[in-house]
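B., you asked whether I could sanity-check this one before it goes into the benchmark set. Here's the sequence:
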Amino acid sequence: MQGTALQIAKQTAMELGLPVPTELVTSLEATSVQLLALLNAVGNELVMLYEWEFLLKTETILTVANQQSYPKPSDFSRMVNQTIWDGSNRRPAYGPVSPQGWQTLNNALISVGPFSRYRVAGSKFDFLPIPGSDGLNFNYQYISDGWVNSYLDPNEFLPLVSNDSDLILFDFWLTVKFLKLKMWQAKGLDTAALVNDFTRALEQFTGADHGAPILGLANTYQTPWLNTTNVPDGNWNTGTP
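And here's what the prediction gave me:
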């Protein structure tokens, strides 16, 4: 279940016995202003807390000849580790390279070799060796910071609430429980019961978000498919018989 920013703020206020807001973004009333500020804090903390499936996106970088750096997506929150692939050569790109390693690759008398390496510096991805041609592709997965679906543009996803009717993508009740906790923390009140409520809800929703594999005590079943674990790198094209 999902709800708008105003619906979540109203439910939170009613449960805590606070004045129920009629507006958030344009309001000057103290409780409404605080609810909006804490709702934005709630959303951004939940983004960082877990790799939610609905925030998972795939990005493709198409290279430009002799260009080393490529920008992150505008909604980039963080990289999903070990997901960047050199799609043109069908193998992973190695990294992220540490600052020390990057300096070594750029300055020492060594060869980078044929395998792509990358680092994330500032707001960009850097690659070595520098792509020598247009149209090569690197693809990776990342967690978006767009936890708010804009009411004014349904195709836009935002990191902050900008309209009372913006749709919050996190579960309605999970968001309410976290917002109640943040409100009571901000007021310096006892939060023990609210912590327990939020923790139970968080465990429930994170457990259901991804699903889980089947675990057993028997030997792990291995597929017979060819992949990077059983075929070494190389060109195995034998040509037409």
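One thing to flag: The longest helix spans residues 30-49. Otherwise nothing jumped out at me.
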